Predict the structure.
Amino acid sequence: MKKIAVIMGSDSDFPIVSKAIKELDNYGVPYEAHIMSAHRTPELAATFAKNAKKNGFGVIIAAAGMAAHLAGVLAGNTTLPVIGIPIKSTFDGLDSLLATVQMPSGIPVATVAINGAKNAALLAIQMLSLSDDRLSDKLEAAKVEMVEGVKAKDEALQEEISKL
């Protein structure tokens, strides 16, 4: 199975990024997590991205706040899918969101919600599941669980309403 790279721009991003790591662990997906900066360590980030496919990665998740150029720098140096997590910092994270989502033509970055680390992990897992039936089956089971959970909550709501 291919690994997922989880790259964060700063250790201050870890409390958010840890949600992605937990989800990868839940699905049994191998990953590596690193800190790299688009601005402080641009050569390191570029070298990592250029070698990611050769090093067994299938998807890169990049989390950054403020001047959130990390996902774009990584995407510019690889053909692997890159998923950006804009981290809430200044301007309620809108600056991070725009820096992550507004990529030039030819350098795509899939972008999840501000602080949307769990969804970034799930999207990466869905990408890997295209060639991994075990992951596909786990995702299907999770969808069924989600449906059952919503139905149970609706039943409880209906019961509460009937008591009014």
Notes: The chain has a mean pLDDT of 97. The chain has two domains: 3-131, 133-164.
